[in-house]
C-alpha cells in the first residue's frame, strides 16, 4: 500500500511513522509513506494556501488550487493504475469505524488531506475527495492527528504486519462486539486471581467464557452495538443471563 499525506506541518509525522508497528510495516515493505507540504504547490511567491472567505466571516479558508495540484501530482505518480482514495479529514465527515478501517485496508493507494484554518474551499470536497472522515464529534486544530489515527488503524490490518491475522481479527469492534478481558502471569497477584476457567486447559470452555464475557463487556459499556450485531440463540440467552446478573 502507498500512503500519501498532504500537510503544511509534515514534521509532525516523523515520530509517528518512524516508530513501532508503522515503522516495522514500512521495513517489511507492506506500506510506503510520503508526507508532502502542499505549500510547495501554491502558485504565489509567498506560498500562501489560505484566504478570506467570500461573504465575510471569521477565520481563513484553505484555497482550492494547492490541493487540486498536489492531489493531481500524486495521482500522476501512482504506478498501480488504480485511482487512489482521497480522504479529507473533517469534523463534518462520516464517523470513523473499524469497518471503515477494514475497507480502506483493501486499497492500494490512500491520500490524506490535512487542513487547518476555518475550513476548505467547497470545490475541494466536490471535485477532489472520495471520502470525508471524522474521528469523533469534536474539533482539532488540524487534520494531522486525525490522519495519524486512521493510518495506524489501517496499516495494522495489512497482511503480515502484526504477524498473525488473529491479532486483529478478535479486536474490539472487528467482531462487532467489545473484546473479552485478558490476563497474564502470575495467576494470583496480591490476592487477585485469574478466573479458573482460563487455567483449565479446556479450550472449549475457555472460548465459551470469552464469548460470554465479550457480550457482558459490550452490554455494560456499549449496549448500542447490539442494535446491529446478529446474536445467535445461545448468545441471546447469555445476554439475558447477564442482564439478570447485573
Automatic annotation (TrEMBL):
Keywords: Cytoplasm, Methyltransferase, S-adenosyl-L-methionine, Transferase, tRNA processing. CDD domains: TrmD-like. GO terms for molecular function: tRNA (guanine(37)-N1)-methyltransferase activity. Its EC number is 2.1.1.228. GO terms for cellular component: cytosol. S-adenosyl-L-methionine binds at residues 115, 135-140. Pfam families: tRNA_m1G_MT (PF01746). It is found in: Cytoplasm. InterPro entries: Alpha/beta_knot_MTases (IPR029028), tRNA_m1G_MeTrfase_C_sf (IPR023148), tRNA_m1G_MeTrfase_TrmD (IPR002649), tRNA_m1G_MTases_N (IPR029026), tRNA_MeTrfase_TRMD/TRM10 (IPR016009). It catalyses: guanosine(37) in tRNA + S-adenosyl-L-methionine = N(1)-methylguanosine(37) in tRNA + S-adenosyl-L-homocysteine + H(+). Its main location: cytoplasm. Residues 1-227 form the tRNA methyltransferase TRMD/TRM10-type domain. Belongs to the RNA methyltransferase TrmD family. Specifically methylates guanosine-37 in various tRNAs. NCBIfam families: PRK00026.1 (NF000648), trmD (TIGR00088). Homodimer. This is tRNA (guanine-N(1)-)-methyltransferase. It comes from Sutcliffiella horikoshii.
Amino acid at each position: 500500500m502507498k500512503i500519501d499525506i498532504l500537510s503544511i506541518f509534515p514534521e509532525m509525522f516523523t515520530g509517528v511513522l518512524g516508530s513501532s508497528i508503522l515503522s516495522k510495516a514500512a521495513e517489511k515493505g507492506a506500506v510506503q509513506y510520503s508526507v508532502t507540504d502542499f505549500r510547495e504547490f501554491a502558485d504565489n511567491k509567498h506560498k500562501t494556501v489560505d484566504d478570506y472567505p467570500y461573504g465575510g466571516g471569521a477565520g481563513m479558508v484553505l484555497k482550492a488550487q494547492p490541493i487540486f495540484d498536489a492531489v493531481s501530482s500524486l495521482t500522476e505518480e501512482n504506478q498501480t493504475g488504480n485511482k487512489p482514495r482521497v480522504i479529507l479529514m473533517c469534523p463534518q465527515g462520516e464517523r470513523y469505524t473499524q469497518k471503515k478501517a477494514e475497507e480502506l485496508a483493501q486499497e492500494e493507494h490512500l491520500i490524506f488531506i490535512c487542513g487547518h484554518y476555518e475550513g476548505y474551499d467547497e470545490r475541494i470536497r466536490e471535485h477532489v475527495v472520495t471520502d470525508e472522515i471524522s474521528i469523533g464529534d469534536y474539533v482539532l486544530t488540524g487534520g494531522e492527528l486525525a490522519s495519524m489515527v486512521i493510518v495506524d488503524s489501517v496499516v495494522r490490518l495489512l497482511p503480515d504486519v502484526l504477524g498473525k491475522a488473529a491479532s486483529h481479527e478478535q479486536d474490539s469492534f472487528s467482531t462487532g462486539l467489545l473484546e473479552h478481558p485478558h490476563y497474564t502471569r502470575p495467576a494470583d497477584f496480591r490476592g487477585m486471581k485469574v478466573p479458573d476457567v482460563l487455567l483449565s486447559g479446556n479450550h472449549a470452555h475457555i472460548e465459551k467464557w470469552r464469548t460470554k464475557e465479550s457480550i457482558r463487556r459490550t452490554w455494560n459499556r456499549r449496549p448500542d452495538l447490539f442494535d446491529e450485531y446478529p446474536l445467535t440463540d445461545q448468545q441471546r440467552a447469555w445476554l439475558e443471563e447477564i442482564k439478570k446478573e447485573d
